[in-house]
Amino acid sequence: MGMTLAEKIIKAHLIEGDMSVPGSDISLKIDQTLTQDATGTMAYLEFESMGVERVKTERSVAYIDHNTLQSGFENADDHRYIQSVAKKHGIWFSRPGNGICHQVHLERFGKPGKTLIGSDSHTPTGGGIGMLAFGAGGLDVAVAMGGGAYHIAMPKMIKVVLTGKLRPFVTAKDVSLELLRYLSVKGGVGYIVEWGGPGIKTLTVPERATITNMGTELGATTSIFPSDEVTRDFLRAEGREEDYTPLASDPDAKYDRVIEIDLAALEPMIACPHSPDNVVPVSSLKGVKVDQVCIGSCTNSSLRDMLKAAAILKGKTIDPSVSMSVSPGSKQVLSMLADSGALTDILASGARLLECACGPCIGMGFSPNSAGVSLRTFNRNFEGRSGTADGKVYLVSPETAVASALTGYITDPRTLGTMPGITMPDSFRIDDSAVLAPASPEEAKDLEVLRGPNIKPFPESRPVTDTISAPLVLKVGDNITTDHIMPAGAKILPYRSNIPYLSQFCFGVCDKTFPERAKEAGQSIVVGGSNYGQGSSREHAALVPLYLGVRCVIAKSFARIHVANLINAGILPLTFEDPADYDRIDQGDALELTGIYAGMENGTVLLTDKTKGFSVPLSCAFTSRQTAMLKAGGLLPYTREQAQG
Description:
The protein is α/β, with parallel strands linked by helices. Helices cover 29% and strands 19% of the residues. A hairpin with a 7-residue loop joins strand 13 and strand 14 (279-281). Helix 2 (37-49) packs across helix 3 and helix 20 crosses helix 21 (635-643).
């Protein structure tokens, strides 16, 4: 039997495990890593604690693209720390302003057939160029940089077969939104999504990268396209054709599920507040007033996206009631926009030019007005993520965004008439001066790592005990995101390296009294619904609860990266064997977990609600490695134990 493309790359990088058994633990050799500054400081503190002098990957890159708003010393200090630790330990450093990590990595470093993990959930963007790319917690990235394996549950395989060709004003973003409408934010959990069919030949690498980027919102382990002549053309334009490798699945490869999408049948789609899968046709929302439009993010900030937006805007002015921003994804994109004159067309329309960074996507500036309707070409529209608590964020393509900015209302871009043509260059402008090489091993010995006062120690974890008695301090519902658990935004992100300060914002979207109540309890339990921890890979959503004394999280189900982060932090994640038991317990109940060690072996732990006087079984499905990690107190102490033999 033939193999899927993902299975081929897994086989080539497999260290341990049986990849023929879906759900079983496998470990992979990692070729490349990336970090960004919102998660990078903690990842490099963790790397330093391992005592490894130099990274052991083929390429590791530290990007500065999230915390670029320097309203105090905190972000500048963290950037200085990352730059110094990168230079000393063999990591390439992408300076502020050089661009968003996923866009720049696609342009300058991504290689077909390589494995990549990044401390950012949208690292699967690399699948657009044929990489097997995973979002992961900072601890997992630190271990990989130190030469350790990356562990995942062997995924099942979904094949999405594309036929036909997109019509004018219909885009790759609409393909992603259509799949989200069909599968939901939970539909990809446990799967790798592989894209194929004759329709993929019509999609450029930036379009493919938009689709693999949005695959994260499905809950998928990752997404991947074949590496073909389209890939080769992109790498040639980037001046690195030597990195090209043809890759495809075997004709007789078997998939657990096959989905067909006719590109020619699609229409412009829009995700309504407050979930990426709340998708309807743009035409169905005609007449909804728009206050703000944002074009950019790691999803839609390529040169192709920007040129299309500029072509529609040329000679026109956005509606006076609309505030519009444009964030090119990289210095390369911005430079080529300026060289071509397209940037002038964008600015002449009344749009504001923002830095080549994540910016509004993570609430780092350009928040909408009170209860404002904001159309964004981003990947997430979680409640409060924009920085405005009652903001109404919709996810759209650049074409829909521009059409709506021009009219002041949600507008189907097909009503604009003929789509203006754009011409993509045969070669891109290459300037890697903002990517700094690390020092040589000899030079590195004498280098100092620079730490600012905002950098605080990693929170101390505790080994999981056989019995846990603690109050249920917080009960939340379904689809709780890491933005709910540990919000982002301009006021909070500068403290990502200061867990004690950050802790006062934990679960602030759900219950602002949680941090105080958790501290008062000493140790506590949190209960959630299905898909708990979806969204960003930020390990702070585990590290901060750890600091506040959370010993266990019980949920109907967990998102992949977050459950790994909980285990890495030494927090016990358990699931209800009967989801109906979720309704039987209430916030404030005194809970007791017993038989935890035995449960790690036989799969069941007993939960007793001492307030109400009943007991229910909880599922406890861990690998032997995860069990050892929890008993050690998390990945860091476990790694130290392994190193000591």
